[in-house]
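G.,

No rush on this.
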Amino acid sequence: MDQHAFQSSVFVHKDKMFRLAKRLLVSPDEAFDTVQDVMVKLWQMRAELHRYRNLEAFAMQCIKNECFNRLKHEEVAAAHRQSVAAGTRAESFPGADNTKEIILELINALPPKQQMVMHLKDIEEYDIPEIAEIMEIEENAVRINLMRARQKIKDQLEKLFEYEQRQN
């Protein structure tokens, strides 16, 4: 695979890769570094990329795996979840006007797998089979994780708005 073929088949997905990395890692700088590292790895294995039926799904799998590795090795996941969870308590949103920001914080507090499924489905607009391929899980697991994530967000929003109504 030459440079032009690589750009048209792999590099074109860099923005989606960045958005997914940013969703999982939160830090734009860390997400950018992760995408760069994965692109270098994909370039180095360019001669073998023809083996993959869906290069976009493979590139997204690589990003997912690299993000999870970074979260594991740097223990960012635990600190991130604690800080986001602390920020999503109802008392931190007295008189909250910005529902979008609240929803984003609630999504960031979800477990990484649920975050990723929700991001791929609702932001990137992938189909269930594509998400299953990217995440290397069964389609049923995708549906279950998506349902649980949406239910958790819904429940937390209901509690938050109920709390705000009682305060007023």
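When you get to it, here's the other one too:
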Amino acid sequence: MKNNLKEIRTQAGLTQEQLAEAMGTSKTYISQLENGTRNIDTIRQSTMQKLCGALNCNPEDLIVPIEFKYDEDGKLIIDSAWHDPHFPTGYVLLIEGNAFLLPMGRNYNSGEDAVKIMRPLKFYSKDKNTQKIKNYEYPFIPCIPRDGFDIKLGRAITIEELKLIREEYNITDDDISGRFEDVKGAIYGKYAKVYTCVQVRVDATVAIDLEEKLNHMGIEAGNIAPGRVNIRVETNE
């Protein structure tokens, strides 16, 4: 939780040591409050009274309300989202050091809808059983990571590699298409990756094997239908 403690302390002409002495606490404690290591919104009422008394201010003067931000599609910008077994019916959203619980199973039209219904978790901390949600889950909630989505795109197959694959899987000229553009991660909007590929036709029983073989080589390939595998190629071939 962001706060104005440092600014108000400075305006009052007090050092961290002087404020700590006035409150009967330590400089380290004051420093932790100022840098957010300790959440100023969750300190004891008696401590808050001492703090405000020393600074001649009100509690609300110290708290900086979080300003929710949205992308151009109206999705709520967050730092991360988590599955926490302690909250099995919701997503835990982290935004600028604050934690919120967003209920699952609802139809959200926008990030503003989420903000209206999510509730703050003041004493939240992740444990080893908390798992970050997968990228593919984001389209089901009106949120987007602050840094966007990093869609991993494998490399293009070389001419020699494609020749060897064709020999190994008995791919004839009739079994391979011309070049066309494919999209990876279309559900992620502007973060999707467009690439050039060809489609090969193989026996349906080996299509998955071919996809895995190419992916293991670092080549972008996808078994998009029974017996159909799209393989990334260089655009200048």
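The chain is about 30% helix and 20% strand. The first strand starts at residue 76 and ends at 78.

Enjoy the weekend,
O.
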